[in-house]
Amino acid sequence: MAKTIQGGRAILVEGTRPSTIVFLTASSVIAGWVVVMRPASALIILSGLVVMFLVLSQQVLFLVPMTTLALAVGSSSLVSSDSSISNFKFLMVAAVAVSGLLVLARTRRVATGSGIIAAAFGLVFFAFVSSLYSTNPRLTFEHSVALSLLFLSALVAVPLLVSDTANLIQLVGAVALTATALIVGGMVLDAAGLIEGFQVGRFQGLFQNPNMIGAFLAPVLPVVVILGVGQRQRRKVFIVAGLVLFLALLLSGSRGGLLSSTFGMAVGFAVARNAKRALLWILMAAIAAGAVISYLDIRIRPEGEGLFEAGTGSNRLMAWEDGMRVISERPLIGHGFGVTLEYFPEVRTESLYRGSSKFFRLHSSFLETALELGWLGAGYLVLLATSGVWRGWRLARARPHVKWLVAALAGGIAGGAMEGVFEAGLLAAGGLLAFHFWILVGAVHSLSGARHKLVQ
Question: 186-214: per-residue pLDDT in tens?
């Protein structure tokens, strides 16, 4: 038992022993030494303590945006791909998963629905089994573990931690603000000359290449735009974020990202059945963006294939053709989950590229899944990825008072799935595309369950 002074009086603090005071004092001294001598280590320790607190208190409104930030920084040009800061993104995905598992252990029930969870972990089981015949069993096993964490965080944890639709909208708003801050931060750092924010005339901001912005925003932008049009709650946030993110996507020149996000918005507004009002908002945004680009005399994709030129899809068609040959070697079961980046460069047809830049992967989530898990795995992924759109379509008609939220989620899923046609990453736990995409899938399935309180 020890004493502390408060307001001039000695107050007894029950359970505080002298050994505890010694431990806290020693810890403070060590922490002070670390801060002075090794500030980088202090930052890592402090981040770990903050994450631990958020996990134990199940603060999903902070955990998910922090994971978005960690994924973005880990995929940025600011850090090397093998640094501890880059790998921090996997820790954040795991932290979200653990936070949900703590709730699951207490409540003994899931919010998403056992069907989609069983289906998702069926794909995980397939991934683990592929390690038995993989070209690199260890790599396949590691990627399978990461996929498990991804599904645990997005399909189990987040739906458990978000109790009603108002909290879900708040969570989406937090992610939208985080994405906006990342884009604006990239513009500011580029203007200050601290980073190369443009690559061959295309905006890349903090990221390693402009196409990463497309992969990041394809599932996020449709959600932000649709909620900005149809939802009263946090409307100003969604409108401002939508304008910034749309401008960034346009400046990036990511044709896949623009096509995917447009497709996602079209699907979302079809689910909401209110296209006229939506088209007016989108047209106004497009005119505003066009005016800014014209005033600043900015050229989109000044080199290579134009914004509206199909061409070879920046050599994607050649990589897809070559990938089909590799897939045909094991069309049913594939070569092992997660091996594309290592295996494809070894077996690609060098003469096919005719001096063009050679791809290290297929740049298509579905084709890479076919290479790794066969056409059976790719077909399974298509059904799993699009299940949220069909569930959203039915839910919008059954519960019209939340149709805009459901339409936004369905639009984000459609945009992310379409982006998966042009970019890898739908099953990459450390990528910008997968985390947000599967959160949207889990959210739609959880809204159809009885656990969520549907707030208008």
Answer: 999 888 888 888 888 888 988 988 889 99
30-39, 157-166, 329-338, 424-433: which is most confident: 329-338
DSSP state of 383: H
- At residue 350, what is the residue type? E
Which of 50, 149, 162 is closest to 98 using CA atoms? 149
Cβ atoms 442, 449 nearer than 8 A: no
d(CA 6, CA 3): 10
Rg (CA), the chain: 24
Q: Where are the domains of the chain?
A: 1-37, 112-447
Q: What is the pTM of this model?
A: 0.84
Cα(343)–Cα(9) distance, rounded to whole angstroms?
A: 71
Q: Which two tokens stand for residue 137?
A: 């069993």
Q: How far apart are CA 440 and CA 456, in angstroms?
A: 19
Judge whether 126 and 119 are in contact, CB under 8 Å. no
Residues 116 and 155: beta-carbon distance below 8 Å = yes
Q: Residue 334's closest CA among 296, 300, 299, 366? A: 366
Q: What's CA 266's distance to the chain center, in Å?
A: 21
Distance separating alpha carbons of residues 47 and 278, to the nearest angstrom: 41
Token pair, residue 6, equals: 């408060």
